[in-house]
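Q: Predict the assembly, please.
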Amino acid sequence: MLFFTQCFGAVLDLIHLRFQHYKAKRVFSAAGQLVCVVNPTHSLKYAPARCAAAQTSAEQGILPPCHHHEAVHDPQLVPCTCPLFSCPWEGHLEVVVSHLRQTHRINILQGAEIVFLATDMHLPAPTDWIIMHSCLGHQFLLVLRKQEKYEGHPQFFATMMLIGTPTQADNFTYRLELNRNQRRLKWEATPRSVLERVDSVISDGDCLVLNTSLAQLFSDNGSLAIGIAITTSKVHNAEAEM
Amino acid sequence: MLFFTQCFGAVLDLIHLRFQHYKAKRVFSAAGQLVCVVNPTHSLKYAPARCAAAQTSAEQGILPPCHHHEAVHDPQLVPCTCPLFSCPWEGHLEVVVSHLRQTHRINILQGAEIVFLATDMHLPAPTDWIIMHSCLGHQFLLVLRKQEKYEGHPQFFATMMLIGTPTQADNFTYRLELNRNQRRLKWEATPRSVLERVDSVISDGDCLVLNTSLAQLFSDNGSLAIGIAITTSKVHNAEAEM
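A: Predicted assembly structure:
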């Protein structure tokens, strides 16, 4: 009996996801845009230090083995850039993507324009929604974070970072767009490098910031759809559209 | 001697304003855009009730006489919509603009696209920057407010309201745009009617909201330039640009 109840629940979940996917596609109606449903992850960064794997709400309890890189103090090595965990891994910038993918189970998506559909926005802070985005020959890390900068008043912070150097990051412009109920909010900026750390970008407030009330206005049934586009800076002219 | 010092100060202020005007024009480079320098007004709404005139920083101490409208309880009369003062005036919607202009000394500007240059952003909350904007045959009230929703953490709230009914307001879309240092933030929405009151729009958070850190990123020498555009909703298609 329990088995059938669970099966029925899973089928309902699938229908719900399909419906959310359809709605997000309808809002962000440009042809060929990929809608990616992103589940929340409760940040374990300030939990007791261990090399934990990404525990998405769908995969809780599955902990792949740690792959520690023995410290050789090579100046070209960078620490793990995963915003979720205090991970002792370090390696060359070129292998950060595969580390994030394999150890921290962060999904990677292709395409110049995608829709990031963050589910369960009501979950308490601190919570993160994270994907990697492969585009224009580079990989980007998109982080949406719910955090209480002021106690009792959670806010949402969204930013896109290049998995590359600050010099490489200067060649790009990213755009985050919310669009619902005849309201539209757009944030455009040069991505920061993951070497600058997500935590500093968010504490500097140099990203898209949403109060809970604004996040609710743009949410649909607890999910927030963020349209994402990346262009090279040569194409982008910050003053052209005014 | 004091006279010459003051004259010299006034000339310096003029040069500074001219320079700010030039810079704002350079950022918002579309031809024909009017740049309007808006001085802050300390909100007196919650001060002892009186029919006070707008005390702009340039005009402090000048209090024009009150023009009370004798209450006749005509259902077509609306209260004073000035967000700054608890004013007992009431009148027909058609004369709200002249009341705001004459009694509260709120400036009015013409043009479909203007640049609102708010000065002295560092002043403590509560502070308002207000103008009226005449466009497409209607008048709009633009309010930028610095307010502490959470004690010790001032935020900026910007909204545009139609001096008209909610049904008339539904025919328009307004856009507020910040653009500086390779960052751009755009808010687009249907204006609310002044009959819905600025205070409720701001407490609902249904407007452009800026943290102090974000406001600083977009400010230049203590002034914030906001590009404003109003279109009719028929022209605007919320899903076209995605």
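DSSP finds five helices and 15 strands in chain A. Chain A touches chain B at residues 27-30, 33, 150, 153, 173, 177, 179, 182-190, 204-206, 208-214, 217, 227, 238-239, 242 (CB under 8 Å).
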